[in-house]
Design brief:
Elements (H helix, E strand, L loop, with lengths): L1 E8 L1 H6 L2 H19 L4 E6 L7 E6 L2 E6 L8 E9 L3 H8 L3 H4 L7 E6 L9
Antiparallel strand pairs: 1-5, 1-6, 2-5, 3-4
Amino acid sequence: MKYLGLAYFTPEKFAAMAPVDVKTLVNQCPPLDERMRATGKVLVSASLADTKSWVTLLPDRGRTRVSDGPYTESKEVVGGLFIIDADSRDEAIRIASMHPAASLGEKGGWAVELIPMDFFLASRE
């Protein structure tokens, strides 16, 4: 089964961190990301751009209206995503727990939401 992992952070908490703490935190991420990818179960892993560059597409009288993103109003923001192909929920949790947002960044309001996917179609490149 495929699982979507959404890595969240809280911008206000992250901004309140001392720059040296942010640098230390960010420097710990690449080895954890690599450990997660080394399982061979991670199909996609990506960090997302700053929300200032996001756009939202909304239906509007049969047409698509584009507005500044993000669409959802929330204290937390999705900062990254990954897709795991796991044999079980427990395996998905074990792999997702390797993501930096699941083990580091408590002061920055980091967290991971793991969501089973009903349908997944890989694009052909």
